[in-house]
Task: structure prediction
Amino acid sequence: MRTAFETIAVAFSMFSALPMPRVAWKDSNMRYALCAFPLVGLAIGLAQILWAAVCGLGLPPVLRGMGLCLLPVWLTGGIHLDGYADTCDARASFASPARRQEILRDPHLGAFAAIRLGAYFVADFALWTALPEAPWGLLLLAPCASRALSGLAITSFPLAAESSLAKTFADAAARSRAKAVLAALSALLLLGLCAQGPGGAAMALAGLACFFRCRRIARREFGGLSGDLAGWFLQTAEIWMLAALCAVQWGGRILCF
Result:
């Protein structure tokens, strides 16, 4: 029981900005920390549901969109956006995989990262604001599914030779068992999305498409997965899942006219 609590605390300490009890990181509590990663998504989903409920009392859609866009950033401290920015810089260089890995390790923010981050926030805010409905089931499942898939990528994709975060978690884990748990969680969460109707099914397909695209990009452009690429995948998957939901909802409204 204590080990399970410490494992969850390690996952939240690494992947969120939420206050957690101080826990010493060791093999026993890091072994399955990635399996607790979707619980961070659960916390984000609950916060988004609460905000959507408050906005449903009569607040304008723009405020709902603002909160749904920014809550994941506030609750995670932007850790995945950091990986997204670094990966955008590296991909925009069109350099060799070794050089792209060097760019990932560079702490400075490049021009392409700034441009892509700005575009990302505009698109994310616009999609959340334009979303006709924010179904609670999808708000709860989507951030869990994206994190389950991200953890599955870390435990199943080839890792870059000099990967730090991804390699740390994969080496500390009983990798085959963690992979099996995350695969099962991913399947259950994606099926849960599909059970929510056409919008959820579209989100599940978008998440899977991003998953396999990330595998190809990691292998061909970077020589393997890293923590930054895992963060890039998570952010990419979430915005495309949201776009898929918007497309289905607005498509249904247009067809009704």
